[in-house]
Design brief:
three-stranded antiparallel β-sheet, 19 helices
């Protein structure tokens, strides 16, 4: 077989198939391969008119179809299936060839694979791809990690098939070495969890406190999407809330079981944040909210517990409350991105990746699930001050969140007084208040730790570590 394909895709489920079609539509000759040959045949038969495909059956045939340096994308399940495919193809490759993992792999797995393949002279790229099935076909946001050499070979092709921001910039850039791309994609998904939970809490408040119907809430979200909350998730939320179930005639949202599922990347975000010592409390509460929703027996057992009586609002008061919810949603959204970017910054420092936070915000402006208008402002903030310690330190965001904070607090008061759970709103405000506090009660925590475990503490009046010899009414301070 002649080596004519410029790119290859193995793993032809919906995401893999759509990505292969995207390359073909953009003028590339694409070798396609699947463990089940019938999927390869079906893809070419149905979509062969979209471009040039080279259908292959065996691993060797697939590799032989690729021009040098070979570039092959793996689109299979994360974990052992990915390792199995790598072990199948790596012996057939030569130094300088590139393997790209386009799945949602754990970044530590990517680091391990990159090191193993680098020793064989093969480049390994962990590429986070966001945008779902539609994005894979029409243009996703792509977050590739790996060597600079691999991006020199692969980058122009990814830039061509990626989503484009409104200013025409491709939503892809070289994130950093080894696992940097999959790390950034992981945090993207963590922010996505938080964003979705915040929107759900806003819906809950508008429904149960303001008394709005799903159709009315859909109108509200459409209006919000015309302003500073302009984003893909707000847009689709309005569509979901406006939808009526064809079988029952009821609002679609009322016939869906209220138990949210998850695939793991949100959990990874929280787990790695704990390892790095980075507070991502809003993201964590979003993950836990999905977990709570799935414990049906636990919820059933607690359903009879006491709670406050409902206090319906007048139409005028409901509209005023809705405006406050918009403020709370926007302020909490700023916090969730603040936490996510802090985690990326900490990960970059820990692993020596040199991630450009402004570039990350730029590649999220199109194609991905969390694409939002205010990412332009985040990019501007980091471009102006690359070492910005927090988005809340940016004067523009600080001013906006300061203007929103009274309404934000009022929304939480209303939620608590009427028994509406808003864990992500509450955690976001607590994070904001913790950062702005002159002193935190951690001083007491350190005293407790020193008392029961001699863990030592630092003082405000002198340098060094100290331990108190606790003994009844008397104590003695010693330098540790």
């Amino acid at each position: 077989m002649s080596s004519t394909a410029q790119i290859g895709v193995t793993g032809l489920a919906v995401m893999g198939s759509n990505l292969a079609r995207n390359f073909a539509r953009n003028g590339y000759t694409v070798a396609v391969h699947n463990r089940t040959a019938a999927k390869t045949t079906a893809l070419v038969e149905e979509f062969g008119h979209e471009g040039t495909f080279v259908a292959t059956e065996s691993a060797k045939e697939f590799v032989d179809a690729l021009e040098r340096p070979r570039r092959l994308i793996i689109m299979v399940k994360a974990g052992e299936p990915t390792d199995a495919v790598i072990h199948e193809f790596a012996p057939l490759l030569e130094p300088g060839d590139v393997i790209i993992d386009g799945g949602n792999a754990h970044f530590e797995d990517t680091r391990r694979r990159e090191k193993e393949l680098r020793e064989q002279g093969i480049h390994f790229v962990g590429a986070g791809i966001s945008g779902g099935e539609e994005g894979a076909l029409l243009g996703p946001s792509i977050m590739p990690g790996g060597s600079a050499e691999s991006y020199a070979s692969l980058g122009p092709m990814l830039e061509k098939i990626s989503a484009k921001a409104k200013d025409g910039t491709p939503c892809v850039s070289h994130v950093g070495p080894d696992g940097a791309g999959h790390f950034v994609k992981m945090v993207h998904n963590g922010i996505e969890y938080a964003d979705m939970q915040l929107i759900a809490e806003a819906y809950h408040l508008l429904r149960d406190v303001a008394g709005y119907s799903p159709a009315r809430i859909a109108e509200t979200f459409r209006a919000w999407n015309q302003g500073r909350l302009d984003s893909y998730l707000i847009e689709i939320t309005a569509e979901v809330l406006a939808h009526t179930d064809a079988e029952t005639g009821r609002p679609f949202v009322d016939i869906v079981a209220d138990a949210a599922e998850q695939k793991g990347t949100g959990r990874w975000t929280v787990q790695i944040a704990l390892d790095l010592g980075v507070p991502v409390s809003g993201i964590a509460e979003a993950v836990f909210a999905r977990a709570v929703s799935g414990h049906a027996d636990l919820r059933t057992a607690a359903r009879g517990l006491a709670g406050p009586a409902a206090a319906p609002l007048s139409a005028e008061a409901a509209d005023a409350f809705a405006a406050q919810v918009e403020q709370a949603l926007y302020a909490s959204k700023i916090v969730s991105y603040t936490q996510g970017f802090h985690q990326i910054q900490a990960g970059s420092e820990e692993y020596g990746w040199g991630v450009d936070l402004g570039a990350v915000s730029s590649l999220w402006r199109g194609g991905c699930i969390i694409r939002a208008a205010f990412l332009d402002r985040i990019r501007t903030a980091y471009d102006a001050q690359p070492d910005l310690p927090s988005l809340l330190a940016d004067p523009g965001f600080a001013q906006e969140i300061g203007a929103a904070q009274e309404d934000w607090r009022a929304v939480l008061v209303a939620a608590v007084s009427q028994g509406i759970p808003v864990p992500a709103f509450a955690a976001s405000l607590a994070y904001y208040d913790a950062l702005r506090a002159e002193r935190l009660p951690a001083a007491l925590t350190q005293g407790q730790r020193d008392f029961f475990g001699a863990h030592t503490y630092r003082r405000t009046d002198r340098e060094g570590s100290f331990h108190t010899l606790w003994s009844g009414d008397r104590s003695e301070v010693r330098t540790a």
